[in-house]
Amino acid sequence: MRAVDVLTITLVLVAGNIGVKGNSCVAGTYFNSTHCVPCPGGQYQPDAAKTECIKCPKGTEQKLAGQTNISSCVDCKVGWMARDQGSQFCSECPPGTFTNETRTDNCDSCPAGSHNNATGRGTCDFCPPGSYQDEVEMADCKPCPEGEYTGQWGEVLCKVCAGNVSSDRTTCNTGGNVTCQPGTYRVDEECRSCDPGTYQDQENSDQCLDCPVGHFQWDSGAVGCLYCQLGFYQNETGQSECMQCPDGTTSTTVGATKCQARKSEGCQEGHYSLLGTEPCTPCEIGTFSSVKGARSCQHCPPGTTTRSIGSTQCQDCDENTCSYKGKCYSCESPTVQNCQDEDFGFCHVCIHQCGDNSRLFSVAGLTVTMEMMTIFGGFLLFLLSFCMFFGCWRYKKKRNKISSTPGMQSFRKKSSPSRSHLIISVRTQKLDSFPDDLDF
Asked: Structure pTM?
């Protein structure tokens, strides 16, 4: 092999050895055994030098790649869901189902007496008078058969007219003796449904009642009213919806008539939540949060840890210990001495950060890394190649000099001379040149 070829192969080997390694991948990426790849949609990675990304929780979506924080996982809105972890997109609730909550991984079935013929709904509609539904998770209501009726909303079964025929499936033709059902009121000889914001829970009433304060009713023909939910209020009667509390205020109970100032602007130091607001979770050991309203906790720097959950700062590890992922370990422990499993990577001595496979050992206070060893090995290969090339050049030069010496011409005419012939010829030439008076 030519010296130029050896030099080329050496440079290729050196360049290959100092290529991309897993510990060079930044946050938002992971190492797939060959190079760094951005975390796909539905996943994130807050730390560097990782071989996989973290999936977003159920009930959330994350549309963009290369995300670094759990805050990029957005809650599915009302009427949408995400069944699995790591979902890139939320899905609409199918017809016959609904969800009135955010961040849910499942949709609820419409109960009997109701229906929903659209996708992405947060509520189901009650079956109107003249219809019914005796099954769950249905898109449409069933009309009452001839001779039966329903006089109010949300009926599961139709009522049979006693000896009479049904006129419009909402009332029976009783020859002027009409019975108005709950949810309706009498006008002359006709029953009419109560308007939104009102209700009636009795039969044969002449009027409907207004929903009280702290309540609402969005539907017509209702037999009762609904409470305002947390974060909403209503200080007037006969309303079809509740009002949301202004920024910085909230309601502490259902059926509230006013809002109150929030007790906390967000999670306290040492705690976190997906939105940075209550309810909050304390930071685990090895992590901390020093700000209010944190959406995630930070890992302690190498050589430090926390002593308890909910910490706001990290403390130095004790002497003769090393740290890994915010936890301290004794240098004499089997965990450190034999740390060749997946959790601790590869190490031979107690270094500042357990599991850092780029640090091999220390000499006179200098930390020797894998990359330094790779470069040094490449330099040795280059030096060896250079020596081989220079040695071959000197051998060729010396051979040409010997071949041009007088007395060697006859030797050069011989075919395929061996090394022993060359040595004999050289020795013969030297003997022939000795003085005649030399006594052997």
From this structure: 0.39
